[in-house]
Structures are given as structure tokens and as C-alpha cells.
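Re: folding output
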Amino acid sequence: MDSVRTEIAQIIDALETGKYKRVRKRLRHMHPAKIASLIETLDDALRLSVWQQVDAAHEGRILAHLTPELARQLHSESGESISTEEEAAAASEAHHASTQMREVREALALGKLKRVGKILHAMHPAKVAGLLESLPPKERVDAWSMVETDRAGKVLSYLHDESCASLAMEMDPEDLVIAVRRLDLDDLVDLIQALPEEVGRQVLQATDERHREKLVSMLSYPEDSAGGLMNTDHISVRPDVKVQTVLGYLRLLKTLPVQTDKLMVADRKGVYQGALRLSTLVTVQPERRVADIMDTEIPAIPVDMPDDEVARLFQDLDLLSAPVVDAQNNLIGRITVDDVVDQIRESSERAMMNMAGLDQEADIFAPVLTSSRRRAVWLGINLVTAFLAAWVIGLFQTTLERVVALAVLMPIVASMGGIAGSQTLTLVIRGMALGQVAGGNARALLSKEMGIAALNGVVWAVVVAGLAVAWFGDWQIGGVIGAAILINLLFAALAGLIVPLVLDRMGIDPALAGGVILTTVTDVIGFFAFLGLATVVL
């Protein structure tokens, strides 16, 4: 009897702390009659909470042990099922994410956790991950508790690092190990790197010895390198065997790794020789040797190649997969296009977030203090640059007091320079990411950008000068602002090209700091040119 009370207490405690996965695990190992007895001892709120965690396949057997009235009440609570049409809609691309999120939030607010589980079950793991990251923390944890353990690992692999770590910590260690054991090795490596060190070590130790050795090897490579992208699931054959031998070997395997469009060819020592396309393998005579039909032009990717260069290589050569080799040209893995697509997406997210001084792995619902601390650094840097621009304006305080019109027109000069500089900066950062901008062609690109700045500077200097004259009736003010705009646009183009090149050479991401520096340059030069010319001329 004491053991029963202890079990009931443990279930209630797990419910109150939101450990729904733990509740479901305990209920799965209990006899239906025992679950019925437990339900009868609870108050209405706890009774419904327990019933929401009962496996749908066991509902009938549990209801049979309850009183008719209580059975009818709980059976009505099970009516929250999804129709075939709704399930198809939840699984389709056309079903908008906002609709899914609204349905999940409504179900969570009503305590209809079974419905949440069914909605999430009908969605692709990537969609589930996106939905979870769109929910506030409390709702996210409740929804996460309804994701089946055998699907949880795949969902974790699609989450950003911060969200992944927090949700993984909501799971019992043994459940986490079960959840991730079916992941591809490259996804498992990414997941281990996202988890807290101790939890990641537990996951690593729980894998079998053969996989553990591969994981340790893959974890030794930097995350932003070819080694960090690669998987070890490649199929390799020797160059001296015949096609019929290779075909027999593939039949024994029964299944091929995903994204397999070619087999890797390596000699007895494991040195990479080339690749054998499946399209070639199934169309040549069986007695042909692999060495005679393999493609030796498919490049092997060095394991330490930066991931952005890997992505560029896949793009330029239209690759679906490519071999990865070590310093001795030994074949150690392969990279597939799905991992490259993920890298490209992450790079674009990183560039966009870095321009605002943010981390693309950060949780959108991170705690207020954490988010404030992250943003405070860049706000502080921006404040310093703003004071620098204010100091320049202060140098010409006497001129501003004498000619009030200058204060009205001053923002126009800074704004025009900022826009022109941002255009050049964006173009150069994109060119650098695609490998189109290097030291060799920087001078030619500078000439082109300066030419554009000069032409646009003259055109808009004339337009703004004319408007200023019409507004204030002073030709001198028109001439001063026109000249200042031309000067600022020229310096903006110069800064837009030089700043990202210098930052890149210093090992600083241009997308992270380029915008702040550019804004400072255009503000300072614009104000100095405008107010300096006004001091001399007026």
C-alpha cells in the first residue's frame, strides 16, 4: 500500500512540475486497473491532467475499470481528435504556421494536451521545432512534453542551440539518450555541441563503442569546417573490383545512406582515388573494373576547409555529395547537399542577426536580463559613436547658432551618406561571402563604386541644393549642402569598400561591426563637411 501511495505521489509531483513525459512513462508500465484506481482517488483537476497523459491505445481498457459516470466524463475528454482533413492540413505546406500555433496555444490554454500531441504528431519535425521556438517558455515546455520520445531527437536537431539545450534539459537523461540514438552522426554531433558539456558527455557515453569512436573523431573538428559538416556514412569500394562485385555488395546492404548519388573509391590503404556515380554503375557492363569507369575529376574536400568554401564548391559544381579527406588524402567521410543547405541558411541568419549585434542561436523568448545584457554591448558601442558625431557638431556650435537653417538641413547630409554607404557595404559583404571580392580586384571595384558615388553625388547635390535655395532663399546654403552631400557620398563609398576588407583581415565578421563603423564614418564626415563648409562660406 505504501508503494502505491509513493507511486501516486511521484505521478502528482511530476504533473505539478510539468514532467509529463515522466508521467506517461510511469503510466505505460502500470496495469489499466491500477491506473483506474489512481484516477478515482484524484480530484477533478488532477484526474483530467492524468487522463491527458494516458496513451490513446489504452483508454478503452482503463475506462472499463471505472464507474459508468466517470467513464463517460473521461471519454468526452478524449473527443479532442483531429479529423483526417485536419491532419492532412497540419502536414501540408499550405497550412499556415500561425494557424498551427493558434490551435496549439488554444489547446494548451484549455489543458487539452492530447490534442496538442496529435497536432504535433501530424507535423514534420522541422515544423514542430519552428512552432516550439515561437511559443513563450511555459507553453513551449508543455508542448514539448507532448512530443513523442522517438521523435524528440529529430526535433532537437532542427532547433537553435539555446532552445535545443533548454528543452533537452527538460528530458530525463535516459529519455534523451533514447531520443537521439536514431539520429545521423552529423546531426548527433551538432546536438552534442549544442548541449551543456555534462549532458553532451552523457549522450556520448551512452552510444555504442563503434559510433562513439566516430563521434569523438567528428567532434575533434571545428564546427565551421568541412569536418564539422561531414558524415561517416559513405560507401567506399576499391578501384580493382568489378562492377558485378559492387552490385552484389550493394544488394547485401539492402539500403543506402540518404543522398547517395555516388560511391567513393579508395585503395586498400584508404587513399581517395575518385568517385563512382550510381548512374554509371547501373548502365555499364558487369565485367568492367571500377578504375575504368570512376570519375577522377570529383574534388576531394580537405577536412579543414571552411564551411563557407564548402558551400561555394557545392554551388559552383552542382554537387549532391562530395568526399572528405584528411591531410594524407585518406577518405574519412562525405558531405551531402542537405548539410550544405543548412550551412547556407545558418550563414544568412548569422549575417542578418550580426548586423544588429545579435546571436542567431539566441532564443527569441530568452529571459529579459539575458537578452538585455547581450544587446547592451552594442547599444554602448553605438552610444560612443553617437557622442563622436555629437562632438563634431559641437565644434561648430557658433556657426549653428548663427545660421539656424543648418540645423534643419544637417540630417539630410548624414542620411544620404548612410544610405549610399550601406549599399556599397552590402554589395561588398555579399561579394566576400561568394568569393567575388578579394585583394586582387578591390582596386577595380573601388574605382567603380567611386564612379557611382560621384555620379549620384552630383545629381542629388544639385537636387538638394535647389530645394534648399527654394526653401531658404539663400544660394550659399544651397551650395554648401550640395558640396557636403557630394563629399559624404564619396567617403561613404570609400568606407563601404574598405571597412569590410579591413575587418575581414583582422578576423572580425564584417556583418557584425561593419554597419556601426560605416554609420560613424558617414555621420562624422557628413557633419564635418557640411558645418565646416558653412563656417568658411557663410
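--- second protein (sequence, then structure) ---
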Amino acid sequence: MVETRLTLARIVSPHSVAVIGASDDVGKFGGRVIHYLIKHGFPGRLVPINPNRASIRGLPAFPSIGAAGQVDVAILAVPVAHLLRQVEECAAAGVGACIVITGKLADAGPEGAALEAQILAVARNAGMRLVGPNCLGIFNMTDRAMLSSSLVLEAAEVKAGGIGMVSQSGALMGTLVSIGLHHGAGFSRCISVGNQADLELCDFLEYLVEDPATRVIALYIEGLKDPARFGPLLRRARAAGKPVLCVKAGRSAAGAQAARSHTASLAGSYAAFAALCRAEGAVLCEDPAVMVQAADALDRLPRLPAPGMGLAVVASSGGSTVTTADMLPAAGLRLAEMGEATRAEMRRWMPESHVHLPLDTGSFDDGTSEAGLAACVRAFLADPDIGAVVVPMTTQPAMAARAALFPGLCREGGRPVLFVMTAAEVGNAARDALRQADFPFYDRVSDALGVLRALEAEAEGRDRAALPPPARPPGIGHPPRLPAGALTEAEAKALAAAYGIPVTRGILARSVEEAILAAEAIGYPVVLKGVSRAVVHKSDLGLVKLNLPNAAALRAAYAALPDIRLEGVLVQEMARGEAELILGARWEPGFGPMVLVGAGGVLVELLRDVQLMPAPLRPEDAAAMLRRLALWPVLDGVRGRPALDVRAAVEALVRLSWLAADLGPRLIEMDLNPLLLRAAGRGAVAVDARATIGGESP
């Protein structure tokens, strides 16, 4: 590709724009584009291109781009049959970039893909950049450059603010901007990338990280062209103090390839993407509407002081406070435990019997008063256990005046206050009061709780970013020389042991007599396992015989092995533990080495209780992964059971993560399943292992 004519900053904020296919008819793409540029006050030179008109919207029109003089950006809204010719003319005329709204290219099949490739070649040979095709262009609210035909631009005003957005769906981007505007949010730049023939999502993410007008970044992602760029860009955004929120389409594991290990089936591409986001402090959302509202909260509200803090719920309706509190556990949130100073302030306004969370201000001695409400909210915002206050307002007198209290209280207290106007149209005056105060609001409690969960995730990312980098554990050198292909259990265990991961003692035998000698050396009871590189699940084929107490039982078990080709048998100690974990590692193309931990044993794929993170890990990372498991209460000691040796599990997981980091793309996949976890202080041991290695050792 030759040197490009324009920087991304100049493409997003052009000095001159040509609209090819311009029209006075706002029912057409080209008509809407020029209408919106004029309506929203584009300050640069605006050039309509239409061979059949002398002027459009009062502006002189040109028959072709070649006759228009120097142009930074051309917006193409032409039929697909004319697209190649128009791109060629733009390239010849020295246009810096084309925003191609036209669709039905690579998104429409092989013929369209071939045309898209031709267009890309023309652009690259000229140093001209492409946005799209099949996109809805760019909204630049900061500089009033609305380079788009999206109907969201029918809004009387498109508010400028701190949210930057990149989306692979133009229509969804317009919808999200509309949702944001309804809630009073402001945007810096919003870019629809469409098919990403040339400029892609990571290019614009990098631009937004550097853009001084952008404070928060929201991404709608269908697929990453260059996943290896994504993680470092998230890291740069975090270093710049700019939270990144993502919605990733295609969360099913449909793209994951069948593989030999549990880890491969559990750690698909979406799981790897989610793990990378968590590791780099990005906030992963399920609902795009919640994503844009959370981005707005991060732009206009104070940040949560720290993760794990509780919430205060306060309203003048007992029903709304109770139902909101009931929704917290499902959202992964909790009610706060008030300190004594907070309780003392509440006792000034209500009977002792009502001093609790959630708070119903209808219980105030003088009824719900603004003075009492403000005093309690101030106390909440100073309480060490209260990270945020949720205010679900129902229908009541003076809603607008009551709502107007909260922006000042929030800014004074320095913690988020999430105001929920649940009263539909009856609450519009309250919404207007908050818009005038430049303060967010929510229409549904579930949206507010989704936003709070995103704020919690952002705080978790801040905490993680403050940790020192991962340190190599003592006692491990470099991986041993390994054959390519599937390893036997003994080979996989030897690899784990080289990294200091405890494994059961075992001896490979070629006959029943050798097996008996091995058992005597290890000590009964023992386990007998048939060894075959071709078998994934040994127990399913009857190749695992447990708890053999003596030589007679061992001889009988050996005779009962199925009649398949075996490389021998593995005799190993009969280990016991209180819980079974799976530890896994694999190389995920585009994302690098990943490690996994979860509930292990034969039901691992049914339970799917797993956590995934990029390698290598810090001990704090490994401990956090364990705490996020549904199995965690068992590990922590539930219902009087003793706590298990979580420290040993953390140590094993960290060491496996360094194994994965060292082997890199050679480690296709590896399982330690199960890792038996014993009571606290008694350690852990891997009783089975498998691995697949690619390539050759260096």
C-alpha cells in the first residue's frame, strides 16, 4: 500500500466533503446525507456530486468528483453497479478517503466479495482509505461532521459528549445513539465500519484512545480482523484512563473446532475474547442498550470507589425498594451493610424499626421530605460500604423537584447515584429536569442494575491494572523437549511436573507382571490405566480401573481391559481429595495462551463451570478465577465442611499458566483433569493429564 493521503483524524474531521449521489430527495441515501450535513452545521466545504443538477440544497453541484477540486472525504451512496467506477474516479481525483454506504458486496456473496476486492485494490494503489462498504458512515458530534445517512440524525440536536463508539452494524449504532440521546448522553465520534474492507475496528479504536474529545469507548463487535491488535489497544485505553465497553455478537461457541481436550471445547473463541477483555480491564456487556447507558454513566457519573462495595436502595415506595433489592443477587450485586454513623443519621428522620436497607422514605416521621431524603443520601455516599445509591422513583407529587436533588448530591458525594424513572410518560418532567442538569437517568430498574454491574467490572479492571506484572514462580526453567502430536498421560504429567505441578506417582508397564511389580513399588491400593494416544476419554472405554487393593485384583483388572491396541498400562497411586477441579491450557489463535480452571471430573463439559484468562497469571488472578466459580463455596468450606487447599490450586494454576506462556503456539491444548484438591494445608494432585503439541521443539 502506498503512503496514505489522510490521517484517521482528518477522515473523521474532514475539511471538505463530497456527496456522490447527492439529491434534494431526503428519501434517498444521498439526499439524507447532504441534508444531515447541512442540518447539523458542517463547518467545512460541502460538495454535491450529481451530473444532472446544477445545484442541490442551494449549493453548486458538480458533474463528477474530478471537477470538484480538492476533497478530503467522499461519501458514496450509489447503486452497486456504479460503485467501482466512482471509486476509480475518486482515486484519480486525489480524494483522501471514501465512506462507502453502498452494500451488497462481501456481505452478499462471492460476486460481491470480488467487487469489494477490486475496490480495495484501487484505493490502496492510490493511498486512498475506505470506510465500509456496507456502513452508515461517521457521526462526529464534536466537530459537527455528520457523514452519514442514519435516521437518528433526524434528532433536533445530536449532543456532543465523551462517548466514542465503533460499530460493525450501522443500523444498531444509530439505535444506540438514539437511546443515548434519550437519556441525555453525549457522543464524541461514532464510526460504522461495515465490512471493514480497509479501515477496521481496531484502527478506529486506536484513534479514539488518542482522541482528546473521547473519554469512554463503546464497541459493537461481530468479528475482529486482527485479534492480536485488540489486547494491546485495550491496555493503552486503560493507561489513558478511558474505559472500554464491548458487546460481542456470536457468543455461542459455533466457531470452536472439535478437539481432543475438554479445554478446547470449553475455551472457544468467544470465551477467549471475554477472558481477554477481563484481563485488560474492558467491560463486556450482553445488552447493547445497557452498554451505551453504562458508557454514559462512566462519562458523566463518578466512578465506583472500589469493586465489591454494597448498594443503598432508597425511594418513597416500599414496593419499589423491595423489588429492586430482590433483583440485586441475580445481577451479582448486594445490599450494603450500613455503618453506625449512617444509621444514626437515619434515626433522626424515622423510627428505629425502619432504619435498614432498602430505605422507604415513606417511613419518615414527617413524611418524605427533601431535607430528610438529602440527609440520608449524603450519609449513604459517605458510608465505607456503600459504593452507589439506586433511586427507583414511582409516581408521586413533585417528581421533577425531587429528581433535581440528585445531581448535586451525587457530585457532592463523589459516588454514583443511579436515578430510575419508572413512571413512563408521567415522569417526563423529572427526565427533563435531569437532562437540564446534565445527569443520567434510567427507565427500568433492570437497566440501572446492568449499568451498576458494568461499573463494578470497570472498578475490577482498575484494581487489576494496579497489580504488578506476573512473576515467574521459583523452580521452573524451560519446557522439556516434546514430540509433536498427542502425548500419553505419562508424558503430559512429566510436562506438568517439570513446572512444579504435583502429579500422582505412576509407572509404565508392558505386561501384567511388570504392572504387579510397579504396584508393589508404589504401594496398594493402585489405579490401572490403559495407555493409548488415540483415546481421549479412557474411562468411557473401560480403560481405568480404580482402587485395586492387591495383586489378585490388579491381575483381574488387567485381564478385563478391552481388546484394543495399547502402548502399555500405567500403574499409579490411588489418590483421594475433597473436590475435583479441571486445569487447562491452550493456544487460542489471535489471542495467545489461555488457561482455564473449573469444576472437574467426568461431568466437566456438562457443568461448564469454568473461568478462562490469558497467560501468564498472577496469584491474585488465579484466586479471582476460583472465586468466580459456582463451585467456590465448596472450596471455601460450605455448611461446616472444612475449607480446601485453595492456595495449592492457585499455585498449580499459576505454574500451568507459565507452561502455556512458554510453549506458546506449540501447546495446542492441555488438561489436568481432575486435579484433586484436599483440605487446607494438604495440597493438591493431578491424577490425569492429556496434551497435544504442535510442531517441533526448538
